[in-house]
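G., the chain you wanted modeled:
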Amino acid sequence: MKKRTLLLLVSLGLSLIFLAGCGVKKADIQGKWHIQDASGTDMTMTITEKSFKMDGESLDYKYTGKGTENGTRYITITVKGEHYTIFFPEKDKNLALMLQADKKDEPLKGNLVFAMNKSEKPDFDKYAKKYWKSDKD
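Predicted structure as tokens:
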């Protein structure tokens, strides 16, 4: 009986550690990103704890939450009153997409703004085709 209880506790503990490691956190969006917009313009964006800098312009953002929907992990932010979502379509947190959300309570619905990658230049069209299904399609 004691062995079974111990085994159950160990299994539960390992499961919780695994689940905690699968999530997304605010620090995952921070750093230097290569980005491309819908017109094919390549830029770099540096995201810090409270702001992001792009083409010499710095904008403050407010972290508003995180979540998972249908296996897609995301972080929500607000910039100048507008709602944005940065989501990670794969396990690799070096690849992300940013969209402007139509509604605060529907973070994965809206217009795709940027394809993002920390290690290489992304291809907006390729990322959009592979990872994005717009509700307007």
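Strands lie at 31-37, 42-47, 51-54, 57-60, 62-69, 72-79, 82-88, 95-103, 106-117.

Shout if anything looks off.
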